[in-house]
Amino acid sequence: SHQTFTAPENALRDKVILVTGAGDGIGKEAAITFARHGATVILLGRTVAKLEAVYDAIEQSGGPQPAIIPLDMKGATEANYRDMAATIMDQFGRLDGLLHNASLLGVLSPFGQIDLPTWQDIMQVNVTAQFMMTKALLPVLMAAPQPSVVFTSSGVGRTGRAHWGPYAVSKFATEGMAQVLADEYENSNLRVNVINPGATNTAMRSKAYPAEDKSLLKTAADIMPTYLYLMSDASSHITGESLDAQSR
Ligand code: NDP
User: Fold this and answer.
1) N or C, fewer C-beta in 10 Å, the chain?
2) Total domains present in the chain
3) Average pLDDT of the chain, as a whole number
4) What pLDDT is recorded for position 192?
5) Which domain holds residue 39?
6) Pocket test for ligand 1, best of 103, 150, 201 (most atoms within 8 A of CB)
């Protein structure tokens, strides 16, 4: 299955893959893993020092030279995404993979106490920014032979849960966006799928569950088989799926 997929060393050779939130957590691990399998990785995120550290790690391990796009998805406009798409088209001529990974958790709270600015920030970063970025990048993706778009959901993007408020709602929207796109591009080479990482030891997980024993959690490295599967040509026939990166 995709959870135990073993990618050949060169599985992503000649692929250009953009990872959002590439400076930390799952996105950082995905960027380094994709580069190790031969991909030229475009590192997008808001904290430049973290992106530079990932860049250096990839260079030091002999991977293809990455690119960095500093961008705060909270404030970015359609013009920013259009410029970004033009730059990628100029520099690479195509985009083979797009991993929508960055997201905001916000504050867990009862529904009656969700404040509007928090709601709006989460919708902006987790939903609207993904819409704008995907829209701008569609022509660049369609210039690739087997383009793959991967969105990141959550258990609370499939079944609502008390106190998960705007984060849960944003993940339902993410699942919906992926389904709409997958259906629309069904008769093309573009595939669109979703990953639910499952509980993974990152800063976001610690914020949601500060008291738990982190040593019992899967690491970002543990869940990479599903990411490699969806970015490699092994999944070229898969679209409109929502996959769990961990077995239950
Ligand atoms: P982290 O919070 O550890 O990392 C998220 C990354 O996204 C960070 O690098 C962060 O940047 C970046 N980011 C956040 N906001 C913005 C923004 N406005 N603009 C640009 N970049 C931004 O999260 P995880 O690695 O845990 O999560 C990755 C994905 O997996 C998310 O979509 C999350 O919802 C999902 N997920 C995670 C689970 C888990 O257990 N960890 C479980 C289920 C789903 P910076 O480094 O500057 O903070």
Assistant:
1) C
2) 1
3) 97
4) 98
5) 2-244
6) 103
